[in-house]
Amino acid sequence: MAGYSNNSAAVWRTGWAMSVLSSGQFDAVDTQVDKRLEQIGGAHAAALRGRGAIAQARLAYRIFRDRFAGPRWEKLAARGAHPQPPLWASTSTKNPDYPDTRYVDSLIGPDTINTMAESTIAAFEDHGTVARTIDTNVGEATRVMQNLRVVGVDMDDVGRTLEDQGVAGFHQSFADLLITLRDKAHQLAQQ
């Protein structure tokens, strides 16, 4: 996150890029952080489970609002510039210990986009809470990130791990696609 706060075009290494596209994989962040917290053990680490992704998103939103405000931004906006709103992606909750609307209820605010699976939409319609939440408890979000660091969770390393996993997954999907296309082309050529 430090890189992003110094350069609005920088990629925040835990899956966030706000100038081009701002997107967060919430369940993946919390899964990775929770796994590390379980390895660390203890009550302090356990109290931080499931809190990293939302804290990170709230701090990213604060940076987003700061970057797209003030005299410099107003000049750009007067010339037709538009901010790229944060895109909250992968907001389905896969961990059964967490509420199924966790990453929706906690990230509602102006100038944001939330992509949701059908099951998450149905859950939110049934028992979600409509309220501006993205910029609430930002001080607590800062404390969560500090406490994660104190217990030994390196969020930069979490980001690198998720980035590596994501690149490997996309690479494999692309390789599979190329094989499928090659096979189909071969099949069509024989007809």
Could you characterize what this model shows?
- The protein has 191 residues and is mainly alpha-helical.
- The chain has one domain: Aldolase class I (TIM Barrel), CATH 3.20.20.
- The chain is built from nine helices and five strands.
- The chain has a three-stranded parallel β-sheet with strand order 3-4-5. Strands 1-2 form a two-stranded antiparallel sheet.
- The longest helix has 35 residues, at 155-189.
- The protein starts with a helix and ends with a helix.
- Mean pLDDT is 86; it is low at 2-21.
End-to-end Cα distance = 55 Å
The CATH class assignment is Alpha Beta
Rg is: 19 Å
User: What shape does the CA trace take?
Assistant: globular
Q: What is the ordering of alpha helices and beta strands?
A: HEEEHHHHEHEHHH
The CATH architecture term is Alpha-Beta Barrel
CATH topology: TIM Barrel
Keywords:
single chain; 191 residues; mainly alpha; TIM Barrel; two-stranded antiparallel ribbon; globular; disordered N terminus
Could you write a compact summary of the structure shown?
By secondary structure, this protein is mostly helical.
SSE order and pairing:
Blueprint: H1 2-6, E1 11-12, E2 16-17, E3 22-25, H2 26-40, H3 43-46, H4 52-67, H5 70-78, E4 86-89, H6 102-105, E5 113-114, H7 118-127, H8 138-151, H9 155-189
Parallel strand pairs: 3-4, 4-5
Antiparallel strand pairs: 1-2
Helix pairs in contact: 2-4, 2-9, 4-8
